[in-house]
Structures are given as C-alpha cells and as structure tokens.
Amino acid sequence: MRLFFKEYSLLIVVQAVQMLVILSLFWLDGYRDIHLFFYATFLNFFFLGCYLTYYYLSRKKLYQRLNQPLESLDDSFQKTDDAPISIAFAQVLRNQYMLFQSQLEMVEKEQDEHRKFMDQWVHQMKTPLSVIELTARNLDEPESSSIREETERMKTGLNTVLYMARLRRIEQDFHIRAVNLSKLVDDVNGENKRLFIRNKVYPKLEEEKEGILVATDEKWLFFILSQLINNAVKYSSETSNQIIISIYERGKEAVLEVKDFGIGIPEVDKRRIFDPFYTGENGRKFRESTGMGLYLTKETLNILGHRIEMESEVGKGTTIFIIFSETQNLTNLVRKV
After folding, report:
1. Counting runs of H as helices and runs of E as strands, what totals does the chain give?
2. Each residue of 245-254: pLDDT tens digit?
3. Residues in Cβ contact with 273 at an 8 Å cutoff, skipping those fewer than 6 apart
4. What DSSP string runs through 287-331?
5. Distance between CA atoms of 188 and 222, rounded to whole angstroms?
C-alpha cells in the first residue's frame, strides 16, 4: 500500500491543484456558489478514489510482490495477475533469471577449468621439486640441507595453493570415515620431521587415552593439522624448543589441541586471524606468512562440521583447539553400543 501511494501521490496532488485552479476561475468570474464548489470537489475526488481503488485492487499482488524480497530464484517465475504491467514485470524477471543462470554457468565453468589447471600445475611442479630434492641428497652439507629446506617450503606453498583451489568444491572432494587421531598425528609429525629438525622445535604427543576416533575426512584433517603445526613451529622457533599436541575428550566431544610456547598473538589481531590474506603484526615480522593457512583451516572445519577455538597470550604462546562434536566422536558412540 505504501508503494502504491508513493507512485500516485503526484497524481493526487495534480488533481487537487487542478480542482483548485478551476474553482478559482469560477470564483473570479463572479460565480460563487459554495455548495456547488463542494459538490464538484467531492465528485472529482470520488471518481479519482474509485479509479485508484480499482487500480490498486487489480494490481495488489504485484505491489505485494514488489514489497517482498525473493526467497529463491525460482520465485522469479511466479505469476501475479493479468494486468499488462504485471505481465511485463514477470517477463523482465524471467529474462533476468535466464541471463543470471547463463552467466553463472559460464563463471562456474571458468572456475572449474581454473581449478583443474591449478591441480595439474601443482602436481607438475611437485615432480621437479622431488628431483631437486633427490639431487640435493648427493651434495655436501650445508648445501644439501639448504636446498631441501627450500624445496620443503615450496611444497608447503604448493599444497596451500592446491587446497585453496579445491576448497570451493570440497563437497565433491572429501570422504567421511572413522579416523584415529593418534595415528593421524604420528603421520603428520613424520611428514614434518625435517621442519622440526631445521627449527629445533620438537612435538610432544599427550593422549588422555589411546584409540580416540572421530568421523572426518582424513586428507583434509591432515592438511589442517599440518598448517597448525607449521604455524606453531614457525612462531615458537626463537623462544621455545617444544610444541605439545594433545588428544582428549571433553564431555561428549573429542578435542585435538596444538599448543606452542612462542610469541603469541596480539590482542588486536585475534579477531581477524581467520580472515583471508590477513597476516597481522606477527605476519609482518615473519615474511613467509601468506595469511591463508588459518583461513583455509577455519573454512574447511566449518564445512566438515567441526569447530575451532583459539587462546593466546603475547609472550607465552598460542593454543588452537579442533573440536569434534558428539556425533563425530566415535569413541563415545562405540562405548554406548
């Protein structure tokens, strides 16, 4: 109703001014029958009111539709009424919907081609890196260690690019199954042993009990844990020689905890550490930071249905918690059975 009055407010004003001008002409010409003036004014606005009432009722559905946001794109095909303006409006929406769909399909096709290209490129780059790494083993120290250190950094960067490209299609790329957290931690530590040796920071695994299982995707959780361990080692290499990885149950939830004793996260950065490309104060000190590791971690955990929490204090270290809900903690489920 408000939209209708906004549209026809000018017409009502014009009618009122027009009626006033006509009556003024009769008054100046000496015809001053007040009763006739009121009667003429009544008739003018009566017919105007009848017209506006009919017009509103015949297009009521159209105005209601204009005042209500679309809940889905399929609502573009809703039929309102048979008024010409309603038919034209519905046609515009249909044309817009078809244009949007065609552009969306084109963008999705381009993204899919880009993702495939990135997958292929990353795998192609890993092959020469492996050759370089094997060649470096035959060199003398410290050249051999230096080259392998750089190849490890490149591999880490390539994996980040690969998982970033896959993130948009993660639903097609993950497989949920029972994962033993202790075994996963051992695999990640084995993969990063040169990182520990190079930075002289070593992991310590603390288990509340053995055999805690969770329902998740092993490949993506492996990548997430690797990101967290890399961050823990990088930001504690100058202040501590140890990080602690803990696995335990908290109520009906399973928790995987990565704790370091490094420089910590400044208070001003805590709210934004999961934003893409945000490096913060620590990232400016450590030039290798891209600001994508924690972003990918949080986005992936959200899709997998896990939670992530963080505690940090400057100068004392940072603790990251990955929390698996009751339905994902298979140890509790097995115990119940």
Report:
1. 11, 7
2. 999 998 889 9
3. 265, 280, 294, 310
4. TT--S-HHHHHHHHHHHHT-EEEEEEETTTEEEEEEEE-TTTBHH
5. 7
Q: Which of 109, 319, 125 is nearest to 231 (CA)?
A: 319
Helix/strand/coil for 215: strand
Question: Which of 220, 118, 128 is CA-nearest to residue 162?
Answer: 118
If you average pLDDT over every residue of the chain, what do you get? 82
Q: What would the DSSP string read from start to end of 66-93?
A: HHS--SSGGGGG----S-HHHHHHHHHH
pTM above 0.70, yes or no: no
What Cα–Cα distance (Å) separates residue 216 from each residue in 305, 309, 313, 333, 337?
A: 9, 18, 30, 15, 20
Residue 164: closest CA among 317, 40, 277? 277
Distance CA 164, CA 170 (A): 10
Distance of CA 191 to the CA centre of its chain: 29
pLDDT digits (tens, 9 = 90+) for 72-93: 666 666 666 666 776 777 777 7
Is residue 282 within 8 A of residue 263, CB to CB? The reply is yes
